[in-house]
TrEMBL record:
<feature type="domain" description="Peptidase S9 prolyl oligopeptidase catalytic">
    <location>
        <begin position="133"/>
        <end position="270"/>
    </location>
</feature>
<protein>
    <submittedName>
        <fullName>Prolyl oligopeptidase family serine peptidase</fullName>
    </submittedName>
</protein>
<dbReference type="Pfam" id="PF00326">
    <property type="entry name" value="Peptidase_S9"/>
</dbReference>
<dbReference type="GO" id="GO:0006508">
    <property type="term" value="P:proteolysis"/>
</dbReference>
<dbReference type="GO" id="GO:0008236">
    <property type="term" value="F:serine-type peptidase activity"/>
</dbReference>
<dbReference type="InterPro" id="IPR029058">
    <property type="entry name" value="AB_hydrolase_fold"/>
</dbReference>
<dbReference type="InterPro" id="IPR001375">
    <property type="entry name" value="Peptidase_S9_cat"/>
</dbReference>
Length: 298
């Protein structure tokens, strides 16, 4: 597994990780049920990374931490604000309330090109990264890994109880993070079980942005081989049956193979795939399922 991860990281391109990580607390606010920190982190050598960290009120002991990965949706103004204010395709209350109400801490960053980092268009970032031997998807992943480095060093975080969650691009980020970093103990992806081979076969590649495509990926990997790196850690994958961005044929194929894989580890209950009513969205049913899954496994 180590060699496969190293090869995958190589495909994602170079990463100018910060030689000296710095953390600046911009603001600390007390909300109704949680404390919210606005942070500015130096995670790479290119630009600072705005972030949120929230935890339940009156909690001093180390808490499980959930990394919330925001979606794309073509809304470059949103970014990590999606943690605080649900996008139209997400349920209410927003994730910050849902997660802290479960007794967990939660953190989120603006990914490259979003919200406070939207100085350059995504198309320009893709081209710039490729010219420099990088990929935008890789840079977004590496920032999140560096963010995890910071989170697990906090005294109010239990470094052994880490989860990742997100929808659409955020869901893709969640399972890629888990595949590349064993510190992610529990994974929840919503509307993100994209079997790239089926997507290609059905001519659905244009349903996803340029940012997601990694040169040479299919020469050395498959979607299944990446997701296999997560096993046997707990993972819940939620897909709407009418979601054109996650072809059901591909989701079913992955489920069939991952069931076999988790069975080999005697960890059948750690893999949970659900294809439910709905499209490219988080439904009430999905919200209930991921809350229950986190409570059981985190």
């Amino acid at each position: 597994m180590k060699e496969r991860r190293e090869k995958l990281i190589e495909l994602l391109g170079d990463y100018p990780k910060a030689k000296n990580r710095t953390v600046q607390l911009i603001r600390k606010e007390t909300k109704n049920n949680y404390i919210l920190e606005s942070l500015l982190l130096q995670l790479n050598e290119e630009e600072s990374v705005p972030a949120y960290f929230a935890k339940p009120l009156k909690q001093d002991d180390p808490l499980p931490i959930v990394i919330f990965n925001h979606s794309h949706g073509g809304n470059f103004d949103q970014g990590k604000e999606e943690l605080l204010v649900s996008s139209s395709y997400l349920q209410s209350p927003p994730f910050v309330e849902a997660i802290t109400n479960l007794g967990y801490a939660v953190g989120s960053i603006d990914m490259w090109g979003f919200n406070e980092r939207k100085g350059k268009a995504e198309s320009e970032l893709v081209k710039e990264m490729l010219l420099e031997g990088r990929t935008l998807w890789g840079m977004r992943i590496f920032d999140n890994i560096a963010f995890l480095d910071y989170l697990v060093e906090r005294t109010d975080v239990d470094k052994n109880r880490v989860a990742a969650i997100g929808m659409s691009m955020g869901g893709l980020m969640s399972w890629w993070l888990a595949a590349l970093d064993n510190r992610i103990r529990v994974t929840v992806d919503i509307a993100a079980q994209v079997h790239i081979e089926t997507l290609k076969q059905k001519r659905g590649l244009d349903h996803h942005g340029f940012y997601y495509y990694v040169p040479g990926f299919l020469k050395s990997f498959s979607t299944l081989s990446v997701q296999a790196l997560i096993a046997p850690r707990p993972r819940l994958s939620l897909v709407g049956k009418d979601d054109r961005m996650c072809p059901i044929e591909g989701a079913m194929l992955l489920d069939e193979e991952l069931v076999k894989m988790y069975r080999k580890y005697n960890a059948e209950d750690h893999w949970n795939s659900r294809i439910v009513t709905g499209g490219h969205q988080e439904t009430k049913e999905m919200r209930k399922q991921w809350e229950t899954f986190l409570q059981k496994h985190l």
